[in-house]
């Protein structure tokens, strides 16, 4: 997949495309329907299919604390889109200038000026421009005068439920990992590089691979049965805790993964942790002994689920 970071890196030969614009957080089944339509139209027009995303998202820029948890950080989103066969991904920095763009300026400077889009694929809830006042109708009207066509993709539903990033977050938050997986088309996972921790788990008999979340807030918390990918030829079962470790007065949220029957140095390795079943919420224990006893119960429960 071709990656372009910023308009200053756009080359003249990269103008002229079938374009879709969106956040694509989670790259769920609804997003995958959009990508499928993008690829079909790109083949018909015989020009590249291009996905445009903004970093940070508009909600993260306008209200960092109130923005919803990220399902996928940028690297995870990149890999998910690449796996779908997307031809080109363009990432633009969302800032005050972009936020202030009127719908017509958005069309003139980006859709037409920068991308030279001939066809645009959008969802039924697509909005653009300052205050999100641009609508499908105004986009279609702009297309008539500027020489591009617009295709509106209807909502994708499963069991009568509209698939959306919001619904995926809700399912993850309440620990319904299988329900989230049905909407995503895959198990929910997080990726990262293993960092060095305080090695407390090792002294307690539960060595862990620790991953920084690299997002302002995660869509789930607590202890879960997991599979780790990227270590060997097969997924490795384990138990993971995602939280701040209140028993030892932790502050930074971490993902700590104890892999069953595994020994090896994972420091610096990039791994993917797939969440299979939630076991419990994070808790603060009165002592390390009480915490260790619960960790043993967690591991036994996870083993029973995974092995």
Could you name the key traits of this structure?
single chain; 2 domains; alpha/beta; Rossmann fold; 14 strands; Elongation Factor Tu (Ef-tu), domain 3; 307 residues; six-stranded antiparallel β-barrel
Q: Under the CATH scheme, which architecture of the largest domain would be assigned?
A: 3-Layer(aba) Sandwich
Radius of gyration: 22 Å
Strand order of the largest sheet: 1-4-3-2-5-6
Q: Give the overall shape.
A: elongated
User: How many strands?
Assistant: 14
CATH superfamily of the largest domain, please?
HUPs
The level of helicity is: 25-40%
Mean pLDDT metric: 94
Count of domains? 2
Q: Give the low-confidence spans.
A: none
H and E string: EEHEHHEHHEHEEEHHEHEEEEEH
Looking at CATH, which topology of the largest domain would you report?
Rossmann fold
Structural class: alpha/beta
Q: How would you describe this protein?
A:
There is one protein chain. With 307 residues, the chain is an alpha/beta fold. It folds into 2 domains: 2-162, HUPs (Rossmann fold); 188-306, Riboflavin kinase-like (Elongation Factor Tu (Ef-tu), domain 3). The protein has helices spanning 29-45, 58-62, 74-83, 96-99, 103-114, 136-146, 165-173, 177-184, 200-203, 288-306, and strands at residues 2-5, 17-21, 49-55, 88-93, 117-123, 149-153, 157-158, 161-162, 189-195, 209-212, 222-229, 236-243, 254-259, 270-280. A 6-stranded parallel β-sheet has the order 1-4-3-2-5-6, sandwiched between helices. A 6-stranded antiparallel beta barrel has the order 9-10-13-12-11-14. A two-stranded antiparallel sheet has the order 7-8. Helix 5 packs across helix 6 and helix 7 (165-173) runs antiparallel to helix 8. The chain is elongated, with a radius of gyration of 22 Å. The two termini are 36 Å apart.
């Amino acid at each position: 997949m071709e990656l372009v970071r910023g308009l200053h890196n756009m080359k003249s030969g990269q103008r002229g495309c079938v374009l879709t614009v969106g956040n694509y957080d989670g790259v769920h089944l609804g997003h995958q329907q959009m990508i499928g339509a993008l690829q079909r139209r790109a083949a018909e027009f015989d020009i590249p299919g291009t996905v445009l995303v903004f970093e940070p998202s508009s909600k993260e820029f306008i209200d960092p604390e109130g923005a919803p948890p990220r399902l996928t950080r940028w690297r995870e989103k990149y890999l998910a889109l690449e796996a779908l066969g997307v031809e080109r991904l363009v990432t633009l920095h969302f800032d005050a200038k972009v936020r202030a763009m009127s719908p017509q300026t958005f069309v003139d400077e980006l859709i037409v000026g920068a991308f030279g889009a001939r066809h645009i694929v959008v969802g039924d809830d697509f909005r653009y421009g300052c205050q999100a006042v641009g609508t499908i109708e105004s986009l279609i009207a702009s297309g008539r005068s500027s020489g591009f066509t617009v295709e509106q993709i209807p909502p994708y539903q499963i069991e009568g439920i509209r698939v959306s990033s919001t619904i995926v977050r809700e399912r993850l938050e309440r620990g319904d990992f299988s329900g989230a997986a049905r909407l995503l088309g895959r198990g929910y996972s997080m990726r990262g590089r293993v960092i060095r921790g305080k090695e407390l788990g090792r002294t307690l008999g539960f060595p862990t691979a620790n991953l920084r979340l690299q997002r302002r807030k995660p869509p789930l918390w607590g202890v879960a049965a997991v599979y780790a990918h990227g270590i060997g030829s097969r997924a490795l079962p384990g138990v993971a805790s995602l939280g701040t470790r209140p028993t030892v007065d932790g502050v930074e949220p971490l993902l700590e993964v104890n892999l069953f029957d595994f020994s090896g140095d994972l420091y610096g390795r990039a791994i993917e942790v797939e969440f299979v079943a939630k076991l419990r919420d994070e808790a603060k224990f009165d002592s390390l002994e009480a915490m260790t006893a619960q960790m043993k119960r967690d591991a036994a429960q996870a083993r029973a689920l995974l092995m």
